[in-house]
Amino acid sequence: MKRVVPLCLLLCAAGCGPSTASLVEQMKAEDPRARLHAVHALYERAAQRDVVLPALVAALQDPNPYVRRDAAKALEKFDPPAREAVPGLLALLKDREPSVRKTAGEALHKIDPDAAAGAGVR
Fold first, then answer.
1. What are phi and psi of 3, to 5 degrees?
2. Could you tell me which of 115, 46, 35 has the C-alpha nearest to residue 75?
3. For residue 83, what are the CA distances in angstroms to 90, 113, 117?
4. Number of other residues whose CB lies within 10 A of the CB of residue 82
C-alpha cells in the first residue's frame, strides 16, 4: 500500500487527470462546484476546440454566476477567437451579477471587438 500512494500521486502529477469528455460530462453535474471545476479544467484544453467550445458556450447559461463568469473568461483563450460565443456573451451583458457582465464584456471585446463596440462595451 505504501508504494501505491506515491505511484498514484506521480501519475496524477504527470497529467493523468480526467478526460476532456468526462469534464464535459461534469458540466452537467448538480453541484455548481463540480461544474466550476470542469470549466477551469476545460480552460486548459482550448486546443481541443471541437469538444471544449460547445461546453463552454453552454456554460454561459449556467444558473451559477461563477460558472457563467469563468466560462466567459475561458472563451477568451481560443485562437482563432470563439466567435460562436458572441450571442451568449452579448446576453451576459445584461446579467444580474456585475462580475459576470464585466467579464462577458472583456471576453466580447477580445473575441469580437466590432460586436463589443456595437453593444457599447469599451
1. -85, -25
2. 46
3. 11, 11, 15
4. 24
d(CA 80, CA 85): 12
Cell numbers standing for residue 96:
444580474
Cβ atoms of residues 110 and 81 within 8 Å: yes
Which of 53, 18, 58, 64 is closest to 38 using CA atoms?
Answer: 18
What are the domain boundaries of the chain? 19-118
**Crossing angle for the helix pair 65-75 and 98-111, nearest 10 degrees?**
20
3-state helix, strand, coil in the chain (%, to 5): 70, 0, 30
In the predicted model, what is the mean pLDDT of residues 111-118?
Answer: 95
CA 109, 114, 120 angle in degrees (round to 5)?
70
pLDDT bucket at 122, cuts 50 / 70 / 90: confident
CATH superfamily of 19-118: Leucine-rich Repeat Variant (1.25.10.10)
